[in-house]
Amino acid sequence: MRFIIRDDPAAVGEYVGNYISRRINEFNPTPEKKFVLGLPTGSSPIPTYKHLIKLVKEGKLSFKNVITFNMDEYVGLPRDHPESYHTFMFTQFFSHIDIPPSQVNLLDGTVEDLIGECNAYEQKIKDAGGIDLFLAGIGEDGHVAFNEPGSSLVSRTRIKTLAYDTILANSRFFGNDLKKVPHMALTVGVATVLDAREVVVVVTGQRKSLALSKSIEEGINHLTTLSALQMHPWALIVADEDATAELRVKTVKYFKSIERVQDEVETMHRELKKKKVNGVNPNIIEQVPSME
Amino acid sequence: MPTANSLVCFTNCKLALEDGSIVQRDLWIDEEKGIIVDAQKTFFEDGRRPDTIIDVGGSIISPGLIDVQINGAYGFDFSLFPNEDAKAYDDGLRMIAERIVETGVTSLLPTIITQQKELYSKLLPLLGPAMHPNSATLLGWHAEGPFLQPEKRGAHLPGFLLKAPKGVATFEEVYGAEALSKPSVQLAKRGNITFPGVRLITAAPEIEGVLPAMEELVKRGVVYSIGHSSASSEIARKGVLAGARLITHLFNAMPQLHHRDPSIIGLLGAPPLIVADDVPLFSNDPAAIIEQFDGADPTLHGAEALSEAPSPSQSPPLSPTRPEDKPISSISARIGKRERTLDGQGVAKKLAPKKSYAKPFYGIIVDGCHSHPHSVRLAYTAHPEGCILITDAMPMLDPHLTDGLHEWRDGRRVVKEGVKLYIEGTNTLAGSVVTLDTCVRNFVQFTGCTLGQALKCATYNPAACLGIENHKGTLRPGADADLVLLDAAGNVKGTWVAGKKVWPVEK
């Protein structure tokens, strides 16, 4: 696991935005070979989306050949409800970039056959060739997507009852009326996220610091579902200083030293790859192995 | 390459919304259908996004301006019918509709001032709602007269003023029964216009026969405006109870504000709902609040715009109340069951459904001379939701007209000084020559309101008064894509009608 610390949420957004942009551009997606990106909602990824939008407007990045899969959606909330994740994704991201609507996938919580919807979603991901990079956030209780504490760590896309904590936290978006907050959601499973070839997690703010500590400083535990990330071969967490408040000094120092070395190695390999363009097989250095 | 779709996205813009706010947001329209679309629905449900993106560089996009009182422009007078030449008259209408868009106006209501009564039945049929290419929409007609108070006649000719001893029958005699009949669906479809057309009558409530006639005519979809009147406060209130939704050029051609009898102007100080005599005005008992007027004939609304979203409520053109008014809806919600409520003892008692009437809108000329800036601010402070900016412009209206001497009528000449027009050799004002976009900028200056709030007074408020706010004066999905592009100071940079750019004309 790689762990990057930046000063504030804006700097985190810029780092993650540049990181995703680099991944997509290095992948060099085409209509035949599209890049598949998993996306979250919530406040943490907003600076990242802002930065990606900026890159698109500057012509440095395009989503023309990118397929997206979103993590989750409420059940029973109309898709054009101001608090639906459809609305969030459209207003925060999709309306500002150049992605064709046909390449955008979100779970539909308004259908009659919810189980069928979930199974079809898993199949759709498979048909797209799996997810190349899954961007994620984290809940205050360490949940990833709507995989609340106690969720199976090998779970797949399914219907999920929201934890009381999450309902309370989300009630602020529903006029502080608990009855108006949907109590169910469709969500990708922990295993669906871990299946992605790469997972990038954004963690910002002091309120997330305990969850971050439990996710990376303790063992794998279904009460902190993000801790399952420890089993992923190619994971990256990017946090701001506030979110590190509960981490041990030793942890922070260690990961900061990794970042430096990682940068050096990545630069070295990129140079090497350039030299190899006319070589026998450029694919042998497709990806820099993690220093972890 | 497949051809580009007809969707257009305006980006890097600030939208002037119908609540008077200005928000940074993109706007999607369908150029072919000429309407505003629900962007999110288009994206997720139709799977489409605009191929054309217009970066407006941070400008403001407002619904196109609506002028409900304009007597003519660019030298053409709506009230004159020389040689009874219908073709020439229609050409004049088209000419104004085509040129007025440079002032940000995308809809106008040609206004006929008092004429000899024979003329109405000839002119009104020529003034149906109409849409011509690259032109502002002609909404219908505004008849200012002849049922006016002679002592408040202003520039109207006293010899042509009439009473209505036979009520509606007199009105039909003067305007023509056809012009006052209930609009048919055919009329609603005319010229791709999706509403039945606007018919606005300014009349003085104290003139014999006017109120009984108006009570009947509002049921047929006519909008009643109180004006050119010396009505007392009580008569003005009766005018509202008869269905008046508008006051014509506030402060002008009406009694001055007197604190003991504030007359027509005093309506601005009335409570939000004007109710019948037997109901206390400010009551805590919801039972005392009146049921909303429900006389609307749904066939009169015309076809809905090619709506992609369920249409929000729209005031029926003939209803004196505005159903979207918050006081009514919140009260209805509180009452729950319409006709039942509980008194203090928990006993259900029956309520007779009664009519309530929203405070009327008022048109106000914001050229700085027809109403003093302080008067404008006074009116706006008293009743911001009812404010409608009008030009009441004379045929001399032409933003390109230079200051100095100009030929007028009957060999008389006028002197133009900025927005003021004097009869030569006098200091008598010869009417207004202010453009509506200038009124918007003046209004910001006079009242200290935001540009968004001022635009609301020239867009959403007039549309709501006329009952066409699902189609005009709004950026709601499904509404006509009539747009005006403004800089931060409110100067018009471009105008679109039904999704087509009409000004400045691209070379």
From TrEMBL, chain A:
Classification via SUPFAM superfamilies = NagB/RpiA/CoA transferase-like
| Record NCBIfam families | nagB
The EC number of this protein is 3.5.99.6
Record keywords: Membrane included?
no
Q: What is this protein called?
A: Glucosamine-6-phosphate isomerase
Highest lineage ranks of the organism? Eukaryota, Fungi, Dikarya, Basidiomycota, Agaricomycotina
Q: What does this protein do?
A: Catalyzes the reversible conversion of alpha-D-glucosamine 6-phosphate (GlcN-6P) into beta-D-fructose 6-phosphate (Fru-6P) and ammonium ion, a regulatory reaction step in de novo uridine diphosphate-N-acetyl-alpha-D-glucosamine (UDP-GlcNAc) biosynthesis via hexosamine pathway.
What family is this?
Answer: Belongs to the glucosamine/galactosamine-6-phosphate isomerase family.
Record InterPro entries? Glc/Gal-6P_isomerase, Glucosamine6P_isomerase, Glucosamine6P_isomerase_CS, NagB/RpiA_transferase-like
- Keywords assigned by UniProt, alphabetized: Carbohydrate metabolism, Hydrolase
UniProt KW Hydrolase keyword = yes
**GO CC terms on record?**
cytosol
What does the record give as the reaction this protein catalyses? alpha-D-glucosamine 6-phosphate + H2O = beta-D-fructose 6-phosphate + NH4(+)
Organism of origin:
Sphaerobolus stellatus (strain SS14)
Residue ranges of every copy of the Glucosamine/galactosamine-6-phosphate isomerase domain listed in the record: 8-217
Q: Which GO terms describe its molecular function?
A: glucosamine-6-phosphate deaminase activity; identical protein binding
Q: Where is the signal peptide?
A: none
Q: Which GO terms describe its biological process?
A: carbohydrate metabolic process; glucosamine catabolic process; N-acetylglucosamine catabolic process; N-acetylneuraminate catabolic process
From TrEMBL, chain B:
What region holds the Amidohydrolase-related domain? 407-502
Per UniProt, the keywords (alphabetical) are: Hydrolase
Q: InterPro entries annotated for this entry?
A: Amidohydro-rel, Metal-dep_hydrolase_composite, Metal_Hydrolase
What's this protein's name? Unplaced genomic scaffold SPHSTscaffold_142, whole genome shotgun sequence
Region annotation (Disordered) ranges: 302-335
Biased region (Low complexity) positions are 303-312
Q: Which Pfam families match?
A: Amidohydro_1
Might you name a Gene Ontology BP term for this protein? N-acetylglucosamine catabolic process
GO MF term set: N-acetylglucosamine-6-phosphate deacetylase activity
